[in-house]
Amino acid sequence: MINCKVILSISKTHLLSRIKQTAIAALGVTFGIGTFIILVSFMTGLNGLLDGLILNRTPHVHIYNEIKPSATQPIDLYTKITDGFKVVQSVKPKFTQAKIHNALPLMSQLNANPDVKGAIPQLRAQIFYISGSIELGGNLVGIDVLEEVRLFNFGQYVVKGTPQALNNIENGILIGSGVADKMSLDVGNTVQVSTVGGAIFPLKIVGIYQSGLADIDNIQSFASLKTVQRILGEPQNYITDINVKLFDIEQAVPMAQFIEKQFKLTAIDIKTANAQFETGTSIRNLITYAVSITLLIVAGFGIYNILNMLIYEKMNDIAILKATGFSGRDVKYVFISQAILIGLIGGILGLMIGFGMSVVIDNLPFETDALPTIKTYPVNFNPWYYVIGITFAMVSTFLAGYLPSRKAQKIDPVEIIRGQ
Amino acid sequence: MGNDTILEARNINKYFREPVLFHVLKDINFKINNGEFVSIMGKSGCGKSTLLYILSTMDTDYEGDLMFMGEKITGKPHEELARIRNKHIGFVFQFHYLLSEFTVLENVMLPAKKLGIKSLGEIRHDAMEKLKLLHIDDQAHKLASRISGGQKQRVAIARALINDPAIIMGDEPTGNLDSMNAENVLNIFKDLVREQNLSLLVVTHDHDFADQTDRIIEMGDGRIIHQ
């Protein structure tokens, strides 16, 4: 340990007596780490935003009745033909009801499951928005609005009015922003909707919904579950979809398989539904890391160069140290510790600059129609990136310092002293 | 110690392999006793510096045995040899090898810090004592690159003394100094031998210098001609 102190004091003197070179080497690391932090914080912030756009409001498991042909046709049950094969042409889908059978007991069973954060009902209905003689096709979704707010951040997408108003006002509707624009409607107006069956209902607009995805905003509106059931003339257990949110998203796949098997319903898990988002995220992360590592390697070469030159300049010092009883290993540590000190100082400075720039970016205004709730650029302040950053700095400077230091370890003092 | 011999070379042979095989040292045998002031003389290229570096343990590429303080040190690992150099051997070179970015005092303290036996305060005190002994304590806080050649050589001697070594080795320690400074260094050496019972082994060209030592080992063509 005493040895350590002596070695550190030597490397400190070396570093301080050539402060300019030290500063340049450290700045190389600072630049690399700072850029890494900025890049990774900004990129993952943006990733989170884009993913959240879809994933936050996507149920982890979506349960519904799918219209599809039966897997086994009646002919399959006929076993007397052994020598041929069966062909059924023009297969029609099986007639099933759109509603989920026994939806209410099913929901209470799911809600009792400890893995489930919440299972909530939806009722999807095809409707037309009526404006004079014009009919616009659309969807009306009946929801339990408070649960939607709790589980799927529904409130974030209501840009005017409040989601709670849906519960308070009879026959209220949260209308899609695209629909509202097309029909020049605003909060407080009344909109007429007609069902596929032809019945017409007036609904009072209590808020405007904007998801940021124009395809949805142009057709979709929300009303309370009861309102939609009344419009369709269906009883209170008429539910077409159940959305499940889990505590752990990784459980989505087994949970979906379990539900399909047990209840003979279609259950789509979030991973199947949104596989392309994971791919996009991982590729963006890959690019971020590739760029950052390149920057750090460049900084590492800078350190390697400076230490290499330093060792040529310090041949005499190395010879003296060895002659006066410092071993080759001590000399190696003198130079490695210099590399590590440069990495540490440069790295910490880089973290601070990275953090500072991230804060600045986080406060830059960023407004776009597609993202109604976002006011500034998204930045992810995950402490892990700072840990990774400083680890990178230390490892790359250590490697950059290691090779020149080994050379210093092997220098033969006799050759240098004789060479004078 | 119970042993009067501090350093003994037994049948030392050394070859340079590059550019062609060359037999530099041939069957070197001699002893240096405790408190003896020995000089090695000889023409340039006769191998005296090469011998000194072998004796100093820095060069390990030789044949034969080297005994130091009654112990065979040939073949010991480098770490161990570095420790022996640190504790028991002091060096003074022709060119005053100081670490130019450190102060005079730090240069003197460094080997003692490496040894790590004494506290920092004691080391600082000892280093000042050694500098006083050589009359350069007034330069203690200057950078080593800022003092004159004669002063540097005295600092190097102070550094060689800091761990109270058993032997001091010098490679032309006065070769680079004017006659006044050379005289000065010689006197310092003589005082050290007399007062502190140090052994001294000095390679030199300087006849006047060598004449004032206890014993002269003369070398020629890689052999000891006369001792």
TrEMBL record, chain A:
The chain crosses the membrane at residues 21-43, 286-312, 333-361, 384-403. Residues 22-248 form the MacB-like periplasmic core domain. The keyword Coiled coil does not apply. It is found in: Cell membrane. The keyword Transmembrane helix applies. GO terms for biological process: lipoprotein localization to outer membrane. Pfam families: FtsX, MacB_PCD. It is a multi-pass membrane protein. Residues 290-413 form the ABC3 transporter permease C-terminal domain. Its main location: membrane. GO terms for cellular component: plasma membrane protein complex. Keywords: Cell membrane, Membrane, Transmembrane, Transmembrane helix. Belongs to the ABC-4 integral membrane protein family. LolC/E subfamily. This is ABC transporter permease. It comes from Pelagihabitans pacificus. The lineage of its organism: Bacteria, Pseudomonadati, Bacteroidota, Flavobacteriia, Flavobacteriales.
TrEMBL record, chain B:
SMART domains: AAA (SM00382). GO terms for molecular function: ATP binding; ATP hydrolysis activity; transmembrane transporter activity. One of its GO terms (cellular component) is membrane protein complex. InterPro entries: AAA+_ATPase (IPR003593), ABC_transporter-like_ATP-bd (IPR003439), ABC_transporter-like_CS (IPR017871), MacB-like_ATP-bd (IPR017911), P-loop_NTPase (IPR027417). Gene3D superfamilies: P-loop containing nucleotide triphosphate hydrolases. Keywords: ATP-binding, Nucleotide-binding, Translocase, Transport. Residues 7-225 form the ABC transporter domain. It comes from the Bacteria. Pfam families: ABC_tran. The keyword Membrane does not apply. SUPFAM superfamilies: P-loop containing nucleoside triphosphate hydrolases. Belongs to the ABC transporter superfamily. Macrolide exporter (TC 3.A.1.122) family. This is ABC transporter ATP-binding protein. It comes from Pelagihabitans pacificus.
